[in-house]
Amino acid sequence: xxxxxxxxxxxxxxxxxxxxxxxxxxxxxxxxxxxxxxxxxxxxxxxxxxxxxxxxxxxxxxxxxxxxxxxxxxxxxxxxxxxxxxxxxxxxxxxxxxxxxxxxxxxxxxxxxxxxxxxxxxxxxxxxxxxxxxxxxxxxxxxxxxxxxxxxxxxxxxxxxxxxxxxxxxxxxxxxxxxxxxxxxxxxxxxxxxxxxxxxxxxxxxxxxxxxxxxxxxxxxxxxxxxxxxxxxxxxxxxxxxxxxxxxxxxxxxxxxxxxxxxxxxxxxxxxxxxxxxxxxxxxxxxxxxxxxxxxxxxxxxxxxxxxxxxxxxxxxxxxxxxxxxxxxxxxxxxxxxxxxxxxxxxxxxxxxxxxxxxxxxxxxxxxxxxxxxxxxxxxxxxxxxxxxxxxxxx
Length: 395
Prior knowledge:
Blueprint: E1 28-32, H1 37-48, E2 55-59, H2 67-73, E3 81-84, E4 87-90, H3 92-102, H4 113-136, H5 141-155, H6 171-191, H7 200-209, H8 225-231, E5 239-242, E6 245-248, H9 250-260, H10 271-294, H11 299-302, H12 304-313, H13 329-349, H14 358-367, H15 371-374, H16 380-392
Helix pairs in contact: 1-3, 1-6, 4-5, 4-6, 10-13, 13-16
Domain GST N-terminal: 26-107, 184-265
Region (Disordered): 1-20
Enzyme class: transferase
């Protein structure tokens, strides 16, 4: 499954007036173009594996290319190209494989020999697919292009354990998706030809490439009546509408989403870590209760024991900065509350929960490197005011 979603600020294009980056300085760079489908293949691979920090984007203006790109970086003067370990690698299909095999992150190939063989066939056919599609624009587009989309529809019937070509998202999807996206838009707009009509697998594949879960924000201070009446009688958030049912309770939802959707597993296979995970999850309510109660008394004295508990827990495994070493259900369960306690106690009581707790300090530092978490962080000013009103009776 994909690494957590990242919203990054895209760097501007470099053109003929731009200076080159400090080439071959140890930084891994993906020379790309945001509109190029070939470059998008490698961009998708990078993002899926969560390599936004490891592989820096260097967008090249293809209509006004800098001379140094051909002279010093990539003599073929095309994108994509990858600068890594003192060398330059090109060709999008080669780069999908290279990035997948040489960097951390979820693998884009399954272990199943039948799927591996089919992946080779589909990737080998991708050039033929593109050639035939582009040729179709000069002839009977609907007829000629239709055969190619029929090929994809048939290919998507091969495995039934997911909506993608190999069941789960793979290099094959990366190779085809940027082009199918463009063909779908162009054919619909120019020829009024819906490539998904009569092709349910292709329609499901395209849907599967989109975000799996859409956010619906509920104003808790002015809740819509329909939310309780028609959706979730408990009238609380979060809740998840999926497969015709609604599921609630945040801890249950962490498990449900992790086990029901594709993406990196949030629970390790190690039995010792699984046992400790259960203990930590079970104790979460106690941490919350004790810290919230302390806000009405002496938080520094009363809440300190809970943060000492977290500090000790973070010493349990030494193969990473998180509670189970690697990011897991436990971190997803605890961090929203640790974040809020950290902000509020520092602001109101001048109490730094990380002082004298190096593991907790390192934990928060590492959490703040995860974009999926940073995107969900609360507004400190709103939090302080809300907690003051709710727990201290002040405004």
